Amino acid sequence: MACYGQNGLRRVLTGAAIGLVLAVTGTAGLAQAHTGTAPASAAAKARAVCPPTPLWANTGGNDQRLIQYDTTGTALSNVPLARDYGDIAFSPNGSTLYGVDFPGAPDSATLYTIDPVTGAETAGRPISGPLAAVTSVPAVNGLTARADGMLIAGSFNSSQIFLIDPATGVSTLFPASFPAGTVSAGDFITLDDGDVLAFGSTVVGGPSPVFRIRPDNTVVQIGTVPQTFGAAKSAGSVYAFASNGDINLLTSLPTTASTSPLPVTTVEATGRGFYGATSAQDSGSCVVPAYTVAKSASPTGPVNQGNTITYRLTVTNTGTTAANGDFTDDLSDVLDDATFVPGSLTSTSGSANLTGNTLTWTGTLAPGGTATVTYQVRANTPDTGDHTLVNYVAPTAPGGSCSSARSCSVTIHVKKKHDHEDCDEPGHGHKPGHGGKPGHGHDHGHDDVHEGDEDKAA
């Protein structure tokens, strides 16, 4: 999420680009409802660690992009965005991606929905209430879904924390705030134990204080991290994306009060300027990607030498959140008997490539989305291989599986040269007196006994 010092924000408002940073985090529990004060007994119970899920970040300034990362810092997708967003956030089930404009004009901040596959805005709703009235500008730079669907939001120009109803855009006051002199640095994460992790900002360029907001709404600082402007989480781990472009893994999240630096491990030095971050698990929900792959071929065989076979591979997002549907297709036991037809590789979306004997597809799919990859091979003439085309497709991203027990493998037999695909033609191969024309069946000089001739006269 975006966060600047007072002078830095003024530079943004005059058009100068300022790099920001992302963060990423592990699984979480349930935050308190947005009205009233929850008793201590309302703290969520610790949960089992979720499987990994991708981390999403938005950059801004002269490089407005939506980037999907895995937990090693490898970029999985990268698409353009329409504007600067102070932060982004997935809904609790991962089906909707929200973004809020930064810094936003007084009384006219806007909550957008964004297509995570294309980066395009799909809707916009004005934000009203106390968050929109923050002066001099709302400067919303913290946005994270809570398990009940409400969005927790922070502002660079206020120590107060807010809630936004995404259905109406109406903001209300969250029953907790940062300490005096501290404002939002860019994110909130619901942790496994029910606490909300919050990143603050006090001095431009200085480290970011990190707080736990208890279910009873008490706020406790637990340490500091290198200046951080966003957070997201995956599989129980917390990552903080620093203002210098480093992705830092937070290796410890203490529960007691401290102002000491928290231990971190740098996962990747990206060199990018991030404005926000999110994952489908930020709200405490254990949302994971899910997709299936399947393959088929036509004809199904047996085929003659010289015949062309068309393969079709289909990848489908079967989950509730955007997913990477990567897969590989091993053609090593196909190309010993056949030749890949140049120019035949096509894909309805994503990127398909053949390197050596391995076909790869990479791409991101929205929930329910499907991509189809097709290619052709031609059986060699002569076929000097084992006369069997066998290949396997394998999902390679988290959450991938075969659509059925046999859907990831195809086997096609190639007829050998002495196979007679025309033996069943009427009259062909019959000796005189067996229904054929006199002499028919000897034109090709065949002396072998054909299947079905066992009952000929001795």
From TrEMBL:
It comes from Streptomyces virginiae. Residues 291-403 form the DUF7927 domain. Residues 419-458 are annotated as: Disordered. Residues 419-428, 440-458 have a biased composition (Basic and acidic residues). Keywords: Signal. Residues 1-33 form the signal peptide. This is DUF7927 domain-containing protein. Residues 429-439 have a biased composition (Basic residues). Pfam families: DUF7927 (PF25549). Coiled coil: none annotated.
